[in-house]
# Entry
Amino acid sequence: MTQRIALVTGGSRGLGKNAVLKLAERGIDSLFTFRSREEEARAVVREVEQRGARAVALALDVADSRSFAGFAQQVTEQLRQVWQRDSFDYLLNNAGTGLHAAIEQTREEDFDALFNLHLKGPFFLTQALLALIADGGRILNVSSGLTRFALPGYAAYASMKGAMEVLTHYLAKELGERRITANIIAPGAIATDFGGGAVRDNAQLNQFVAAQTALGRVGEPDDIGDAIAALLSDELGWMNAQRVEVSGGMFL
# Structure
């Protein structure tokens, strides 16, 4: 079987890093992006290698669509040099950051930054990489539980994620002829450094989330990394255009 390769945006930290490592444990190699912390990215490459897989870290600002053509060329070169291939199998659009601000206090520049990173970026990065995704491959986008339930302060962020859910349907429809599936995973609150690490580090918030979750605790990065690896497995190749919430049963 040809070696499977995933391209993961935002793979040097948080859920993206966990996904890269969980995929490595299943024998899947990775190209992953980082924005500025090169040493962190190199450390992830070493962790992947310790698991018996290969990884390449590439710098990319997903909010800067002008860089995507050059990035696609870098991916092409790495695929040829490292894997002697001209395509990869899985695209995980994961890179992102949060914003907590009431609608009344949301600044236009913050809205635009979220738009560029969470919607425009994934849209045009996927477009730029389509020729490099193998026929029969997978696209997995990342949404949020906040598209199903509403918490004050997340209107702008959740709106971008809601748009990504719609885009996922269109990717599945338009890429069906190439047997490329598109799905979207929606994590609940996870104890990472996302959003300044509030869910992880704020005991009161952590307890609140746990109390609103059917399984009685806050989600951990492994919960999402394992789910991502499962969603990209061969056994789920017939699943397409689906939103899969992985939240432990939050706000039921």
The chain has a mean pLDDT of 95. The chain has one domain: 5-246. The chain is about 40% helix and 15% strand. Residues 5-246 form a domain with the Rossmann fold fold (CATH 3.40.50.720).
